[in-house]
Amino acid sequence: MKLNLNPELSKHLREKVNECHNFAYEKQANFKSPEKRGKVIKAQAYNCLCACMDRIDELVEHCNTLELNSLFGLYDIFNYGQTLIDCISMISNIYDVLYETREDVSCFNQKGSDGSGNDEKYFKYLRSLCSVHPIETSQHKIYQGDEPEWCPYISGPSVVMLVDNNPELKGADYYAVVYRNDMEFNKHVPIRISEIMQYLNKRYEHIEKIIQAIDRYNNDIVEKLIEKHIPLSEEFDDYVDYLFSLKDAIAERTGDKEDFHIKEWIAVMKAHFADKKMQTELQEYQEAMKAGIKEIHNKLQGMSIEDCFNEYPIQYRIDFISNGYALEKLQYLEDKFANMPDEDAYKVIEQGGVSFTSDRISLMLSIISEAQKANLSEEEMMDVARQIDGRFKTTNSEWARIQLKIVEPCFKDEIEFDYSLDDWYLHLQIEIAFWRMSKKKYKEGC
């Protein structure tokens, strides 16, 4: 005989928590503090949520494997079943949807001596006798009175003679033998597997109500955020000030507090080229970016944005370049900027970057140019690049420039790349080139 807890239910719980990950991450709840016994503190609940969900997944899998027609399977189901209940109850408390236990005796039908008993209390009483405190059961007054109880062993099924003298044992799968100082003969407590399974299933299915509560909680936050006005760009004298404000809105609504995209947008707006033609291209690109940011702003305001990392104001195609390796290595040009503190990065951008010139890179690029004149294949060009790397031991910045030089013909002279520019400024030239190429009709491939 085994439990059959549906693992899909715990999976749905995790999906619901992750559905609005930033709301779950910011959720707070009351927790017992180790500082002082009985002290309760309000703290971030996310790590607790994750711990509970991880445990629930593991416990469901394990509990479903337990053979309940064996004594140690019974002991385990009491222990691991209660841990499962505790994890579910913790998440239930975090989202303020308590399980109604007070008058629920639908599984064990044991109200106790004063009528205040319920299924939760009785399960803990059985667990104490059978597993966790068999030689010190003393915390269940309504089921044991004022006497301590000691349980030497569990037996079963019930023998006929015992049932005749103890009709409550009829149909029991096991019974706990209990010693007490106020009884001449042993006390026998019936244990029915069907009741235990019914109880654990019922507590596990409470997850459905938790999922509903999480849904309500998330929807309430969404409604409040929709009503909360995000300042428009027109409300600022400086567009960059608007972007800093938008960064706060993105953090609040998506949880992306250190969104690299905003850093990049701000950098684009602060950028400038000494070359007049390139500066004109940049200004057109900035205007296109502003239009795209406006769309993202509207999505944020209506809370129709799921992941800001997938939202970028400039959309372009890269499929006219078949060299995937080269495309990947172009990302090296962003690395230094991405890893710099924001203020330092903006300062570098405002100053026009740091010029990248050396006899090394000039020689490397000239080798690539000569190879291109020979109409070498893509693979042959990569062989030339590897030879350069072996000879010069190239840095990431140099290697990105070599890869750009190899694929430069694919851009069909849309932009004249300046390889002496700072890494990020050369990256910006590439972005503008992709954007301009995507606006035009072009043939497949290079």
Explain what the structure shows.
This protein is mainly α. It is built from 19 helices and five strands. It has helices at residues 7-19, 21-26, 46-63, 71-94, 119-132, 141-144, 160-165, 193-205, 207-227, 239-254, 260-270, 276-301, 324-329, 332-339, 342-350, 359-373, 378-392, 396-407, 423-439; strands spanning 28-32, 40-44, 150-155, 174-179, 187-191. The strands form two sheets. It has a three-stranded antiparallel beta sheet with strand order 3-4-5. Strands 1-2 form a two-stranded antiparallel sheet. Strand 4 and strand 5 (187-191) form a beta hairpin. Helix 4 packs parallel to helix 8 (193-205).
Unreliable parts = 442-446
SS element count, helices? 19
Q: By helix and strand content, what is the structural category?
A: mainly alpha
Alpha carbon gyration radius: 34 Å
Largest sheet: 3 strands, antiparallel
Query: Order of helices and strands, N to C?
Result: HHEEHHHHEHEEHHHHHHHHHHHH
Q: Spatial order of the strands in the main sheet?
A: 3-4-5
Overall, the morphology is elongated
- Report how far apart the termini are: 67 Å
Mean pLDDT: 91
The total strand number stands at 5
Estimate percent helicity: 55-70%
- β-sheet strand percentage: 5-15%
